[in-house]
Each structure stands twice: as structure tokens, then as C-alpha cells.
Amino acid sequence: MKTLVVGGTGTVGPGVVRGLVDAGHDVVVAHRGETVAELPVGVSVARVDRHLDGALAELVSTVRPDAVVDLTCDDADDGRLTVAACRGVDRLLVVSSVNAAGGPLPTPVHERVTPAPVSDYGRDKLGLEQAVRDSWATGDSRALVVRLGPVYRPGSGLDGQLAEDTYWLGQALAGEPAVLADEGERYWNLLHAEDAGRAFAALLANPAAERELVLVASRRPIRWRDLYRTVHSGLGLSTRTVSAPAQWLVEQLSDDEWLQETSLWDQVYDLSLLDRLAPDYQELAGDKDLVATAAWLVDQGETGDPELIAEISGLGRTWAARDGSPTDA
């Protein structure tokens, strides 16, 4: 299958491309040329700015793919542009985000949950989904919408419980205790980008996987405290933690949106629709891949914003002094 991946060099893209290549796809990557990524041998690259008038449609006409995977649809306008550009393409997979559903949510989360996004990003992604749904109703598209969970790979970040940043790695390297909300009891969900690519390949292989919204996330959620301990141990670092009540942290943090949207509830997903539409898909990544991603971040010096590290470490010390509890080893 010849597959055009739009946005194949960003955070998610290179892993998705590798997953598709592993599944036997002949992949062409389209991007703006602003990022550099190591792609598998044999992958073709085309530069395009999807927002230039007619540029994406012209590229699709030139490449003549059997399938298009669009990783760069941010909102309803992007969705309408992609649908129009891909008329005549047999298979179209448009990637949205679990943030379109919102949070906190009752778990396990499924596709039928009533969306209540809490961030501008989530609201824009919900608008994208509605634009594609509208195209189903008019007969303009049979696109599959993937509501994708959090994704990682070496070359991307590993966000912490309290902020969308790798501050917790910086804390560990400095010997500071990790600050957990409510003992780090909540489940986080991390899917390796190559597993996402394998899931996309399995969905594209099924002609019945169309005009649907399907969740793609990890089948192995991990508690925040266990994520920290797994990575710390793999890097040869000791794990020290201090726990504060989540609500207190919400009140203290200068920016609490990440904590509110992603970390105060269990990111556990009902993936029964994915199992039905892609029965041969298997999730292969494990703890060693988390550690490898963290090791890459350490090697690159990408271990958090210093001001954020200082803020969160200060909150940990404040709560520990107030609570009178020692940090855990």
C-alpha cells in the first residue's frame, strides 16, 4: 500500500512512519521542511505547506497514494482542507487527540463519551472531528478518525504529572524528590509512536474501518509513581518522592491546565473498537522503550525548564514542611 503521511517528521511522525514501513507500506512523507528526523531507508520525502492554497491537493494528485495519514489536522478548517484534498483516495486516516474528549472523564474511556474539552487544543480537535463527521453525512469522505492517546518515542518528551515538561528528569538528576499528586496513584497512558504506526497500518488494512471514530492508546496504563520509578531505575538514579494533595497543587501551580486536563483521572481506555477493527494489531513497546526515551532526553540535555523545576521543587519542599513527612525513597 502506498501511503502518504502528512507531518511525518514531528513528535509522532517518525515512529508512525517506522510502524507503517514495518507493516509493508511504501511511505511518502510530506512536511514543511522545518524539522529534521531520521526516517527509514526507502521513505520518500516531499516538502509542502498544507495551508498554501491547493498545495496539499496538488501533492495528493502527484503522489497518487492508496492511503493518506494526516497527523497535522489541528482544527475544523484543517479537517475540511484534508477531506477536500483527498477526494478519490481510497483510505484516509485523520488523527485527532483524546484531549477532544476532555477530562477528567469516567473510566474506562470509550468513543461514546460526551465530549467536554477543557483546553483550546481539545476544543480545536473536537472541531476537527466534527468537520470529518460532516463529510460523512454529505458523502464527501469515508475517513477514519483516530482519537490518539499520549505518544512518545526517543526524540520526543516525557511529560510529568504536574506539567507538560520533562522537569521530573531534571529533578532526579539534581537529587530533588519527585513531587507527586495524591501519591501518584492515577494512571497515565503512554503509547510508543511505532505502536501507533502499527495500529494505523492494521486499521488501513481493514476496508470496514471507515466512517468511524476509534480510540488508539496503550493497553498498559502505568501509575505516575511507577513511571517515575521505572525510568529512574533504568537510568541508575534513586527515586525519592514527596506527595501533596492534587487540589492543593492545582491551587498553587502557576499553570494548572495540564494537571487538570490529564493527571487528575485514570487514563484507562476501552479499546474494544480498536480490537474489532484491527484484530491483528499488537502493542510491542515496553519499559525499556520508556527508559531509552528518557536516556535520549538526558543525553540531549532536555531535562526540563529550570524555572519550572524550581517552582515544582519549591512546592514539594513547602508541602513536606507543612505535612511534616519525610520524602520516600
Automatic annotation (TrEMBL):
Every NAD-dependent epimerase/dehydratase domain range: 4-210
UniProt cross-references to SUPFAM superfamilies, sorted A to Z: NAD(P)-binding Rossmann-fold domains
Gene3D superfamilies: NAD(P)-binding Rossmann-like Domain
Signal peptide per UniProt: none
UniProtKB keywords: Carbohydrate metabolism, NADP
InterPro entries xref list: Epimerase_deHydtase, NAD(P)-bd_dom_sf
Pfam families tied to this protein: Epimerase
Organism superkingdom: Bacteria
Keyword Transit peptide: no
PANTHER family: ADP-L-GLYCERO-D-MANNO-HEPTOSE-6-EPIMERASE, NUCLEOSIDE-DIPHOSPHATE-SUGAR EPIMERASE
Protein name in the entry: Nucleoside-diphosphate-sugar epimerase
Organism expressing this protein natively: Micromonospora echinospora
